[in-house]
Write a structure and sequence with these properties.
Chain lengths: 245, 223
């Protein structure tokens, strides 16, 4: 019952609260900077402001899947449940952010290039990652045994992550061979204020990721503890029944 | 018994099983021909259009037919209980992986050898060239290598056959892009040197995938 005591012994998860507070402040600051501090982009206008959220969420998505990859290696080496919890929590949060990146990317593509989807390499690789980790989630939900679920998901998480750089090269070359005039808006000149705003957004989203990750990990531990308690309660009930007999 | 002989003992077992039932190769072949017809009707493939679309249609057909064969190959092990026998055998887990993977590659290769002349005739493109064969081999090795690993995972899930394409296709994207581009370059009259970048990407994909699959397979079949 160590896990159970762990989640129950402290009334307040102070680190979690501090992280939540910090990310709330950071997100507000980033929002303020995006709308008030960053200059209006010369050619694209206010539409360009979505870029700060887009890049930040794409970064968090990629980082989250990297965390899953590292946690997967940890799980294969040590076989401890905590690594699997970290991996699955990071995938779920990464999926949320990569979805945000794909959606904001499409919204930006429409006014910038005239279409919601242009097979721009970075947007495409984000969408490929989205598909890969949706498959990861489907795999987990299609397996009963928790131990087997962890093992299979870990292997998939590792193999999947290894293919991502190869996909990136393939998609990039593929697009270069078929030149696409629509992707002409790549060389956006950034002023110092723009760079500062971008960095603030990335920092804010990364903090938000850390906060969500901590909460998700705790949730999964609590679920584990609950499952163990239920198991124990059933055992005790069965014991009582057998005593009464 | 050394490693190679163990691997080929497993390959020989798979070939014997396939000669007995012929279910894998016949399913893949019939499906491939059907897929070619469906693509032809869907895209109205004639003349220059057929030439342009041929590499994509070819690889899409191979990819979809491949998932059929791969999931059959591992499901057969499971249903017959043969996988338990393999696990008890005094061989390295990676020998089992290579055995299964090579067996699958042989079956996919046989289907492709039948498919190529048929494809060339139906779409009036010449695919029977050394360069195309090399690209086919490279693409199939990568696809089959990762497919064998993922099929071993998929057979243990509730969704089984449905799970494999969902897991496999997103990971096969780099191999499919490279294979389609290389095949396309060769069909357009290029030499192997012209599509060198794509074939190198295929080689890198194959090496990386085979290494990672070999290392992780033991965690998939672990009891």
């Amino acid at each position: 019952m160590r896990m159970y005591e762990h989640t129950n012994s402290r009334m307040y998860d102070w680190l979690g609260i501090v992280l939540a507070g910090l990310s709330a402040i950071a997100v507000l600051v980033a929002l303020g900077m995006v709308f008030l501090y960053a200059p209006r982009e010369a050619t694209m206008g206010d539409v360009q402001r979505i870029f700060y959220f887009h890049v930040a969420s794409a970064w968090v998505g990629f980082f989250a899947f990297f965390v899953t990859f590292v946690a997967g290696i940890g799980y294969l080496v040590q076989g401890k449940r905590r690594w699997d919890i970290l991996a699955l929590s990071s995938v779920e949060i990464g999926l949320t952010f990569i979805t945000m990146a794909v959606v904001t990317g499409s919204l930006w593509a429409k006014p910038a290039w005239g279409a919601y989807w242009t097979w721009e390499p970075r947007l495409t690789i984000s969408a490929v990652q989205l598909l890969i980790y949706v498959a990861y989630g489907m795999l987990r939900s299609a397996i009963e045994s928790p131990e087997q679920k962890a093992r299979f998901a870990t292997v998939y998480g590792i193999v999947a992550f290894v293919t991502v750089p190869l996909s990136w090269f393939a998609i990039r070359w593929w697009r270069t061979i078929h030149p696409d005039i629509m992707t002409g808006g790549e060389g956006m000149a950034m002023t110092p204020r723009m760079v500062q705003t971008l960095l603030a957004s990335i920092a804010a989203f990364t903090l938000l990721y850390a906060t969500l990750l901590r909460q998700r990990v705790h949730l999964e531990r609590a679920a584990d503890a609950l499952a163990r308690l239920q198991l124990r309660a059933e055992d005790e009930k069965a014991l009582k029944v057998s005593e009464n007999l | 018994m050394n490693f190679i002989r163990k691997v080929f003992a497993i390959v020989a077992k798979d070939i014997a099983a396939e000669l007995h039932t012929r279910e894998m190769i016949s399913a893949m072949l019939v499906f491939s021909v059907l897929a070619m017809f469906i693509f032809s009707f869907a895209l109205d493939l004639r003349g220059a259009m057929a030439r342009a679309a041929a590499p994509g249609v070819l690889w899409a057909t191979i990819a979809f037919a491949g998932t059929l064969g791969l999931s059959r190959s591992l499901a057969r092990e499971q249903q017959s209980g043969c996988i338990d026998g393999l696990m008890l055998a005094p061989v390295d887990r990676s020998a089992i992986y290579f055995g299964k993977a090579i067996g699958n590659l042989i079956f996919m290769g046989i289907v492709e050898i039948v498919l190529l002349p048929l494809f060339s005739a139906l779409f009036n493109v010449s695919l029977l060239r050394l360069g195309v064969l090399l690209v086919m081999a490279l693409g199939t090795v990568g696809y089959g290598a990762v497919g064998t690993l993922l099929a071993a995972i998929a057979v243990n899930t509730r969704a089984r056959e449905v799970m494999l394409p969902v897991l496999l296709l997103p990971l096969a994207i780099p191999a499919l892009i490279a294979a389609v581009q290389a095949t396309g370059g060769l069909v357009e009259g290029g030499t192997l040197a012209d599509v060198g970048g794509w074939t190198r990407l295929l080689v890198v994909y194959d090496l990386v995938i085979v290494a990672v699959s070999m290392l992780t397979f033991e965690y998939v079949v672990e009891e």
